[in-house]
Amino acid sequence: MELCNCIEPPWPAGELLMKYQYISDFFIALAYFSIPLELIYFVKKSAVFPYRWVLVQFGAFIVLCGATHLINLWTFTLHTKTVAVVMTTAKVLTAAVSCATALMLVHIIPDLLSVKTRELFLKNKAAELDREMGLIRTQEETGRHVRMLTHEIRSTLDRHTILKTTLVELGRTLGLEECALWMPTRTGLELQLSYTLRHQNPVGFTVPIQLPVINQVFNTNRAVKISPNSPVARLRPAGKYMPGEVVAVRVPLLHLSNFQIHDWPELSTRRYALMVLMLPSDSARQWHVHELELVEVVADQVAVALSHAAILEESMKARDLLMEQNVALDHARREAETAVRARNDFLAVMNHEMRTPMHAIIALSSLLLETELTPEQRLMVETVLKSSNLLSTLINDVLDLSRLEDGSLKLEIGTFSLHTLFRETYNLIKPIASVKKLNFTLSLSPELPEFAIGDEKRLMQVLLNVVGNAVKFTKEGSISVSAFVAKLDSLREFRAPDLISIPSDNHFYLRIEVKDTGLGINPQDLPKLFMKFVQSQPTKNSSGLGLAICKRFVNLMEGHICIESEGLGKGSTAIVIVKLGIPGRSNESKLSFVHKVPRNQVKPAFSGLKVVLMDDNSVGRMVTKGLLVHLGCDVLAVGSGDECVRVINHEHKVVFLDVSMPDVNSFEVAVRIHEKFSKRMDRPLIVALTGNTDRMTKENCRRVGMNGVLLKPVSVDKMRSALSDLLEKGFFVESK
Amino acid sequence: MEIVGQLQKQFVDFTTSLYREGILDGQFVELQKLQDESTPDFVCELVSEYFQDSEKILTNLTTALQQQVVNFKVVDDHVHQFKGSSSSMGALRVRNMCIAFKSLCEEKNLDGCLRCLQQLKHEFYLVKNKWETLFRLERQILEAGGAVPFVDYRFY
Q1: Any residues with CB less than 8 A from the CB of A305 and at least 6 apart, and which?
Q2: Which of A619, A656, A659, A718 is the best mutation test for B, with the most CBs of B within 10 A?
C-alpha cells in the first residue's frame, strides 16, 4: 500500500459491471446536462412560462445531478482525496437541491395542472362565444332586413304601394319564389288573392275563409308552416320535383276604432289578411327561425302601415266633405245676404214709395172735408180718410215690425225727463178724451226719478198706443194713467224669468197702469191681444199690429206688458213695466247721461269760408276764432280796427267786429270797411258781436250798415244758423 | 279698468259741482264743444291765455287803484276787459264780480273798489284753482287709458 491518500474503490476495477456503470453514468451526466439546456431553449422561446425560478431550481438540481454522475466517473479508478471531496460536495448539494425541488414540486404541480384545466375552460368559453356571436350576427342581419323592409313599407301612405313593396322586399330579402297576399272580401266570407309577386295578374282566386288551415294561421300571431298543397299555396304551376316550404302569417287589418292605447293589437273586429310565402322549389332550403321572426315582424309593420293609409284616406275624405260643405254654406250665406239686402232695399224703397201716396191721400181727404159737401159725400170722405189713416199706420207698423222681427231694431238710449214724457202724452190725449167727455187723469208717484235713461221715443209710442187704445174703446167714464216705481214682488207676479234682475243702483222698473171703464175684453181673447193681425172682436178695429209692436218694444226694454180685464163691459187695465236706467249713480259703462257730444257729426258747413275777426280782448278773440274754426272757417284774427281795415280784402266774405271794445269805435271801422269796397259785390258782410242787448246798440249797428248782430256769448249752434242765414239771405235776425 | 272708472266718476262729480256752485256756466260747455281732433288742446290753451291775461289785468288794476289820484275810467276799462274775457270763458262768478266792480267804479267808490278787487282776486284764484284741478283730472284719466267724459251742464 502506498501512502497516496487515495480512496479505494469499493469494487475491483476490471469488472464488466463497472464498465456498464461507467458508461451509464456518462450518459446520465450527458442527459442531465442537456435537459436544462433544452429547457432553457424552449422556455426562451415561450414567453409566458410563469415559473422561471422553478426552472432555475430544477436546472440547478439537474446540473448538480449531472455533475454528481460526471464526477462519479473519476471514482471508478483510483482517485485523489480532492476528487472524493468534490464528489461529496456535489452529492451533498445535489441532495439539498433535489429535496428542495421535491418539496416545491408538491406546490407547483397542482398549479400547473390547473393551468391546464383553465385552458380547457377558456377554450370552451371561446367556442360558446363564437356560437353566440353567430346568433347575434344573424339577428342583426334580420333586424337590418326588417328595418329596411319597414322603411320601404312605411315610406308611402298608398295602400297599393305598401302591399306591393312588402311583397317585393320580402321576396328579395328571403329569396322567395312566390309571395302572395289574400285579402278578405267585403262580405268577410272569403279570401281573395289580391297581390302576388311573380304572377302579374292575379286572376282573382277566392278561397272560403273558414278553411282549417286558414283558421290555424289566423289563430296565432306567429308565422305558421303550411302544406304546399293547401289551397292558398297552390299558386305556381305544379311540377318540378319538390315544392319549397311554405309559410303563412296573418296580417291584422286595423280600423281607426281599434287604436286603444293599451290593448293594441287585441282586436275587436278580427279581420285578417293572409300572407303566404314560398321558398324556391328544388332547393333544400328550410325556414329558419330568424326568417320566421322576420316574417312576423314584417306582417305587423304592414298592418300598421295599412292602418295609417286607411286613416289618411278617411281624413282626406272628411276634408273633402268639409270643403264641399263649406262651399255650400258659403253659397247659402251669400244667398241669405242677398235676400236680406233685397228685402232691405225693398223696404227702404217701399217705405218712401208707400208713404208718399198715403200722405197725399190723407192730406187731400182732410182738405176735402173742409169744403162744402153733402152729408153723403162727407160720410164717404170720412170713411176714405179713416181707412187711409189706418192703412198708413199699418204700413208704418209693418215696416217697424219687420225691423223688430229680425232684431235689427236697436233702442236709442238717452237721458230724458219722465215728467216731460208723461206730460206730453197727457197733452196729446186730453183733447180727444175731452171730446169724448171722458175723465182723464194722470198721476205720477213722487218716488219716480226726474230723469231716466232709455228710449224716449219708443216708450212714448208704447204709452200713446196703450192710452190711445183705452180712449178708443171707452165710450163713457174715465181713463186713469198712473206711473210708479215697481216693487220686486209686483215684478215676480209676472213669473217672467227674464225679470230676475233686482232693481239696483243702476236701474229701476217703471210701472205704468192705464185703467179704463170701457168695453173690457173677453178673458178668452186676452192671450191673443198681442199677436199680430188677430182681431178678437168685430168691434175692435185697432190696427192689428199696434199691441204686437208695443210688446216687442217692451221686450226690448226688458219689461213686460199685459192687459187685464174682468170681462166684457167691465173695463180693462193695461200694465206696462219697463226697465230704465238711473242717471247720476252709475259706473263707467252706464255713464250715458254725460253722453259724448257727437263731435264729428258737426260737419263744417262753411269749410274754407274766409272771415276776419276783430276783437281786442285776447281771450275773447281766441274763443270766437276757435268757434269759427270749429265750423270750418278760415279765420284771420286781428286786435285793432286799423289792422282790420288794412288786412281785409275781397276774398273775405264775413267780418266779425266786437262792438264791446271801449276804445275802438267799431262802428267807424265798419264805415271804413264799406268805403274800402266800393262795389257791393266785393263787400264782406259785417257782423257785430256785442254783450249789450240794448236797443241803442242795435240801432247803431243797423245805421252803420252792419248785416247782423250777435249777442255774446255765442254758442256753436247760434253761430252756425247765423252764418247760414247770412250767406243765404245776406242778413240775419237774431232770435232770442 | 277700475281706476279709469273711478277717475271718470271723480271728474264728473267735480265738474258738476263746478256748475252747481256757479263757478262755471254754460259757456264753458260751449267751449268744450269747440275742441276736436284737429284742436285737441284748444280749451287748455284758451285757459292758459285767460290766466295770463287776467293776471296782467289784476296787476294793472292793483296799480291803478294804488295811484294817488285814481283814474276810474282806466279802472273801468280794465274791469270791462276782465268781464269780457271771463264771460267768454264761462267764469260766471268772476264775471258777476266784474259787473259789481263796474257799478262801484261808476260810483267812484274807492273803498268799495278796493274791497271788490280783493273779492275779484279771490274769485279769480278760485276758478283758476278749479280749472287746474280739472285739467289734472283729465290728464290722469288720459294717462290711465280712458276717455274724458263730456259733462253737459244742463242737467244740473
Answers
A1: A153, A154, A162
A2: A619
